[in-house]
Each structure stands twice: as structure tokens, then as C-alpha cells.
Amino acid sequence: MTHLISPQNIAIPDGIFAQRVTQTEHYTDRLFRFRMTRPASFRFRSGEFVMIGLPQPDRPIFRAYSIASPAWDDELEFYSIKVPDGPLTEHLQRIQRGDTIWMRKKPTGTLVHDALLAGKRLWMFSTGTGIAPFASLIRDPETYARFDEVILTHTCRTAAELTYGQNLVAALRADPLVAEMAAGLRLYSTTTRASFPTMGRITDLMANGKLFADLGLPPISPQTDRAMICGSMEMLRDTRAMLESYGLTEGSNSAPATYVVERAFVD
Ligand code: A2P
After folding, report:
1. Contact 229/250 with Cβ under 8 angstroms?
2. Which among 81, 157, 161, 242 is the best mutation to test ligand 1's pocket, defined by most ligand atoms within 8 Å of the CB?
3. Does residue 143 line the site of ligand 1, with CB under 6 A?
4. Distance of CA 264 from the midpoint of ligand 1 (Å)
5. How far apart are CA 106 and CA 59, in angstroms?
6. What percent of the chain stands above pLDDT 70?
7. Residue 2: its pLDDT value, please?
8. Domains (range + CATH), the chain
């Protein structure tokens, strides 16, 4: 890939915003986040994704990234996996403050409030970088206006991979303006391959009832509960099957229902 970090000589194609990286933070050899400037005209709904790429003279590679920052933030944040030899992330993982990022202008997605019917309790099920859209949604006032209780589950292989979600919720609790709004939020973190207080795939913890026992909640019901899922294809398939066994049905922007799904895209 002939990627140029400071591409003065590359024309910006139609339909693309060129933005500057403002911050990067690396968590493990597989995970990092970056923040960038936000175009003044750019609007999105919490939970949506955009296509992200790096400046390239011909046929630039774009990948879908959920926007992890809230709609009220001046900047945009993204949480990314680093894939060895990945066409985009191999280069993206090396970006630094001041570098240029390209972003397609139109956000889209199904993990949005418009695709869910109102309810009492909102479950957000995530694995790995699938937590990104929920990082936005847990800082959106609409989430708490629509639901009394919000439960974010995050499952990763190791404890180090849980850091992004834990830091996010800790920062939210430490911010008086957001903390009061998000009093109904609970984070439920688990690992599958390294020791941690709560271990297991979220699907297994639902099936054996431990998730509900730990939280002191009844099992999921279509009368009270709504859900959003974001993870790998396999995680989506299995979590979706669990939710359907509780009687939930999949919604969309045009036909809201009781659960919605988005893939954590980059691989
Ligand atoms: P496991 O370690 O048992 O595979 P990854 O890093 O590969 O994207 O995985 C993130 C997390 O998602 C891991 O904890 C992994 O558990 C879990 N996971 C993978 N497949 C599924 C699935 N089909 N259902 C639920 N969780 C899954």
C-alpha cells in the first residue's frame, strides 16, 4: 500500500472528509483507539458507523468503523483491532497525532434507538471491539430517556482487552454531568481465556442463568427487555439465537422491534 502520511499531493476524492488525528492510545498488541477532528457539518446517530481509510492516490481501502464518541463530542473516536497484514489496520495502527484520516461522509447502521421499540431495560451485548458503538450510546441522553436500566456486557479473551470499556465507564462515572444521567448503567465484563472474576462466553452465561443471577435480574422478556448486539459473526449468530429463544424479534430502521444487530466489521 502506497500510503502517504502527509499527503499534500493527493487530491481528496468527492464524498470524503480529510481529518487530522488528535490522539492515539494502544492497549495491547491487538487493540488501540484513535481520536480525530470532526467536520463541522458531520452529524450522526449514536451507534452508527462510517467508512474510514488512509490517503492513497488510487483505489483507497476503506473499512467500516463504529463511531465510539458521543454525538455531543467535538471530536470523533474509533476503537480498532490491529490485524497483522490487514489491508487497512496494518497501516492504521501506525498513525500518530497530526496524520490524515479519510472518512466517507455518510454514516449508517442499525444499532440505533430508531430501530428499537421502547422498553424498561436495554441490554448491549459486545465482544472485542464490538463495544465501540456502545461507547457512543452509553453517553447519549436518549439512551437514559428511553430506558430505566442499561446493561453493557463486554467479553474478551483476556483482562487487558477489557481495559477500554472499563476506562470508559470509570470516566463516565467521574464526570458529574454524565454520571447523573447514566446512573442506570451497569457494566458486566467477562473473559474467556485468562483469569478474571467473571469468566465465560456471554451466551453460556445467559444459558446457565449466571448473568441474571449476578445482576439480580429476571431472564430477558419481550415485555420489558430490548437488546443490541455487536461482535464477530459467530457471536452474533449465537447471541441472536439466545435472544430469539426469549421471544425477542429483530428490528430495523423501517420496522422497529425488540433487538438489533451489527457486525464488528474489521477483520
Ligand atoms: P472464546 O475465547 O471462547 O473464543 P475474538 O477476540 O476472537 O474476537 O473474541 C472475543 C470474545 O468473543 C472472546 O472472549 C470469545 O470467546 C468470544 N466469542 C467468540 N465466539 C463467540 C460466540 N459464538 N458466542 C459468544 N462469544 C463468542
Report:
1. no
2. 157
3. no
4. 12
5. 19
6. 96
7. 45
8. 16-104 (2.40.30.10), 113-261 (3.40.50.80)
